[in-house]
What does this fold into?
Amino acid sequence: MKTTTIWQCLLLAVATILSTAAVASDSWEKTVTAARGETVYLYAWGGSSEVNQYLRWVAEEVEAQYQIRLVHVKVADIGEAVARLLSENEGFSAVDMLWLNGENFHQLKTANELLGELPSRIPNAQAIRSDIPWQSDFGVPVEGFELPWGIGQFHLIVRSSLLQEFTQNGQLSPQQLLAFAQRYPQRVSYPKPPEFHGTTFLKSLLHALHNDSELFTRAPSVTSRLALEPLWAFLNQLHPLLWREGQDFPSGAAFQQQMLANGQLDVAVSFNPQELSVAQRQGRLPEGLERVVLGPGAVTNSHYLAIAKRTRVPHAAQVVMNYLLSKEAQLRKRDGSGWGDPAVIALPDDSRQPSLLPAVAEMHIGWVELLESGWLERYQQ
Amino acid sequence: MRYPHLLLIIVVVIVGLPLLAVVPSVANFVWNQDLSNVLIQLVDYPGFTTMLSHSAVAAVVTLTIVTGLALVSARYLYTERAQPHKGGSVGMGWMGILSMPHLAFAVAILWLAAPTGWLWRLVPVESPWMPWFDRQYMVSLWIILIAKELPFLWFMTLRALQQLPFERWLLVGRSQGHSESRTWWLVVIPALLQRLRLPLCVVAVYSLTVVDLALFAAPQTPAPLAVQVAQWQLEFDPQSQLLAFAGSLLLLILAGLMCGWVCLQERFIFHWCQRLLSRSLSTTESWLFRVSVVGHYLPKLFVYLAIVLFIALLALVHGHGWFYPALVPQQWDLALWQREWQYVSDGAWRSLWIAMGVASISLVLCVITAEWQRARQQKIPRALLLLPLLVPQIFLVLVWIPWSQTELLWVVWAHVPFSYAYALLAYLPAEERFEQRYLQQSQTFGYSFWQAWWRTKRPLLQVPLLTAFALAMLVSIAQYVPTVFIGGGRVPTLTTDFVALSSGSNVSMQALYALTMWLLCAVVLILIKPRRKNSSEGEMR
It folds into this structure.
């Protein structure tokens, strides 16, 4: 009698699991069918011709495979899309999807403007690598309101010939950076915080100066300002040695990269681990450069895709997002002859692809505010 | 004219309402916020005084130098135009710079003349003479603003001179034994300056509020106030929003002060000229007059500048792997045009059609405004015309979003207030000197008011009408914020793509879009250029 009950229960359980799976794939089929013929407006930064080129390819593919028209809305700053979303009235939004992270995500999530439960809506979300810390975006819990699209790892791009006497293992400590700047004054700089490359430069230094990665994953407390003192002391030493004696800083990473190409600086910064090889292939950076991690590891984060809650085309947006997370699309994105952005799903290894850099986790978002306001108070007069 | 008020309502609805839309939010800010507290926060913001002085000094320096340069070259500008056989080849070549988008101009000139630029690779000198002409130097922002605004002022000067009977004045002066240059400076210049008041205000306000150029060329630690305000606007915490609001109000006040400065310098020059009428020149003054001959060469210089910049941009587009100090790139790559052409031409056509629609509407509104002024015999305050230029664009546009759709028509509407302001700037001064008698006489033949307008006034005012149309088109082509925000990506233009690309590091691609934008604007100016033949008679002397 007892065994029969167990068997019955087991059978029931199996049946339930099978039917849920069937329902899931069934409902996905329905989503795909409903998406046909719709147009999706994906708001994404339009400053990189490689990314633009990649999205043109994606548009062709989703047109062919799903009969969806994907339009890349190129903006100079994704904050413009956030501004548009927050200014619209209650009806449908002009924004269907966004490419974003950090502060912009935080704003939209707080304003309840994003479609939730993405991991259960997007089948390919199951394939996202478990070895990347994507559940927290600049310290803000993702909670299903966005899915990672690619990986950012903060590092420096430095002239190899000059670098060799300071380090050879691909890592640069703050002291080595200082020695480098002493030897080559006016040849080092970093983007002006709160530009996010600049802020991340500060984070890397802070990690290196403290060697206590636990400290920064927690929210800062009242006494946390003290933890920043070593950073300010270090910057006070470093700044007089920087480009324009640290009186001014490049407006962004793109400008700094141009200065490296023009021979005005010996250091640039980047978040794309393959940036150097991509830029060299595109003729944007010369030979004789190498990438190096500042501090104990590269500050690693993800950049994400999100769907606006008030989108007119939720089905098509989900299909596009699912495609962007597919093996095919992620392989193409990783390809160094194009964008060269690391994949967020597990893909077959490719020896031609440089591996990821040693990573350190992102800081809690509270630290960012402390870093930025502290920096402005001290160095912007 | 029948129903002048009804017609004016059309103008008010199309241009006035959108501008009035900011009133509720401004009122809300002024009444509901603790204003003094916000102002204290603004003043306490790190680097605030430097931001403020950067902005104000840039505006004052640009305005003063541009006024001086425009005045010294005004005379030669006209003779070159009036006598095409003398230096006619130079003629209007400087308009090449006028038609160049600001950001494209900055990209090109810095790529050429910055310390690691192409020019210094060509010239065999030990170190560049102008190490301060580079990105993120205040002086380079001044130079770029001056060089870019000067052709605009020349353009307006030409229009103003066409309405002054200055040849008669010169004749009278000569008959009384004064040299031509003395009469020119003492009689023509004060009159000219008065006509240039509004354009000078536009230059002043633009130099104060410009964001894209300042982000590119000005120091960033701290940035000029307008840049910081734009950055606050894209940070969404309430604190930044308040700072953005307070900063915009401050810019508005500064803009008012700058317009005051325009009147002040006008009065100063006027008094100076008056005093000079009754006495001879001091040594400094005669030295100044001698120096003013540089004005003769300035327009020519700008023609060469336009040619050089064109070559520089062309080279930049096709150079692949071009690093300092290489004289030529690793290879010339002609494939970029092929790859991008489809997208570039799409955007260019869309820009062109939108601009034509916008300019047509703006011109019609312009004519209605002018005729309403006639019918009511009263003038619309000039400050109102400057309003679309004074309010930070992003503010206006964010207020419009809930009221608008993402269709093309709404994008066109969003451009109209800005284009309309420039069109009025070109049209009103000429229109106000028109003898309305001609129109009335023609009505006595049985034509209706608008028929008579079309048959008499339109041909006689063809030059200012075409000028207004061309300016309105150029302004529309240059719009980024209204196009992206209102269009919601449905109407990508050449400019939206260019501005987005400018935030990245692919210089060749930026140059490609910049070059296309420039060509588009140049085509507009060439096509809409009034023919010399019927232009001078067209206006009432």
Observations:
- DSSP finds 27 helices and two strands in chain B.
- Residues 211 and 227 of chain B are 5 Å apart (CA to CA).
- The longest strand of chain B covers residues 319-320.
